[in-house]
Fold this protein.
Amino acid sequence: MNDDHTSYGLLKTLEDNPGLSQRDLAKRLGVSLGKVNFCLNALIEKGWLKVGNFRSSDKKLAYAYLLTPQGAEQKARLTMQFLQIKMREYELLRAEIAELKLEVDMRAGQQAKHRSGIVNEIAGYGE
């Protein structure tokens, strides 16, 4: 998973869940804790996220990662980029499925023709 993809996943997830721990973010995104930490620090450095800390209910210090206006703008830009990528992938997949269906139909037709020839031979029609 490249850093743009991870950054997008972080921005998208944190928009609705600012209080998630880095460990929870790593689990949700399917990346390492180290990668989440690296990307969060990069997003903070870019000014896309700001960090606030608070005491959680069990008296531990916890963090909230909040999108800045610039972060929300970048999330929207990344959303458009990923939408375009996914639409291209979808169109390529549709074309591949159409080719496979055609191949299956052609093979089925050839097999039916072959079976018909065998039946005709057995019945004595092929002479």
The radius of gyration is 27 Å. The CA atoms of residues 66 and 97 lie 42 Å apart. The longest strand covers residues 49-55. The chain has a mean pLDDT of 88.
